[in-house]
Write a structure and sequence with these properties.
four-stranded antiparallel sheet; binds zinc ion; single chain; mainly beta
């Protein structure tokens, strides 16, 4: 598995909303280990959108690009 994009909390320092460029985003962790966030959401309060984190990978695609 490619771990380049593993979801470390430090990523929150650089992640901005892909739609409105809002920063910082709000991290909600539902599952984590000692090194990284495994599952949760990254929330843009301006767009009122949650970007999912699955298996340590943040999905920062704009909602309209996900194919609903
Ligand atoms: Zn936004």
């Amino acid at each position: 598995m490619n771990r380049v994009f593993e979801m470390k909390k430090k990523l929150m320092d650089i992640l901005a909303c892909p739609v409105c460029k809002h920063h910082p985003l709000e991290l909600n962790v539902t599952k984590e280990d000692a090194k990284e966030v495994l599952e949760g959401t990254i929330r843009c309060e301006k767009c009122n959108v949650d970007y999912p984190i699955e298996e340590g990978i943040p999905n920062m695609l704009p909602p309209e690009s996900r194919g609903q």
